[in-house]
């Protein structure tokens, strides 16, 4: 085996390790919480090339609103869909779009862009 063959194998192994890490590694998910004022909680998710934070944790039993702050101009993220809640909002009509989240019971509400490419979730607990 010459040096270039060894080099090729090493590069290959590094690539394989990277791919495994990329798909199966535990990536730290940015998670946000809500602000509670007068028994109402609000959380803000910035929409810009994705959702930031992509996970929002809400307190059970406190009426909740999640504000989507639209800063993206691509068609991909123009809609946000909460399938479980029957919500499909056009985010391009105004800068901030508010979605009411039921908090009467604990649970997770997934949301996605209109094409189901970007995902996030709202966790009530
Ligand atoms: Cu999309």
UniProtKB/TrEMBL annotation:
- The record lists the membrane-crossing segments as 6-24
User: What superkingdom does the record give?
Assistant: Bacteria
The record's annotation in Pfam families points to: Cupredoxin_1
Annotated keywords: Membrane, Transmembrane, Transmembrane helix
Where in the numbering of this chain does the EfeO-type cupredoxin-like domain appear? Answer: 16-124
Keyword Transmembrane attributed: yes
Q: Which InterPro entries match?
A: Cupredoxin (IPR008972), EfeO_Cupredoxin (IPR028096)
What name is this protein filed under? EfeO-type cupredoxin-like domain-containing protein
Q: Can you name the source organism?
A: Lactobacillus hamsteri DSM 5661 = JCM 6256
């Amino acid at each position: 085996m010459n040096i270039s063959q060894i080099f090729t194998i090493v590069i290959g192994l590094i690539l394989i390790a990277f791919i495994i890490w990329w798909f199966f590694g535990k990536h730290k998910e940015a998670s946000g919480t809500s602000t509670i004022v007068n028994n109402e909680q609000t959380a803000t998710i910035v929409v810009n090339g994705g959702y930031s934070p992509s996970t929002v944790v809400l307190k059970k039993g406190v009426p909740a609103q999640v504000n989507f702050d639209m800063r993206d101009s691509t068609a991909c993220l123009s809609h946000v869909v909460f399938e479980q809640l029957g919500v499909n909002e056009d985010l391009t009509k105004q800068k901030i779009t508010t979605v009411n989240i039921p908090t009467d019971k604990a649970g997770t509400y997934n949301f996605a862009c209109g094409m189901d490419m970007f995902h996030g979730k709202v966790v009530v607990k």
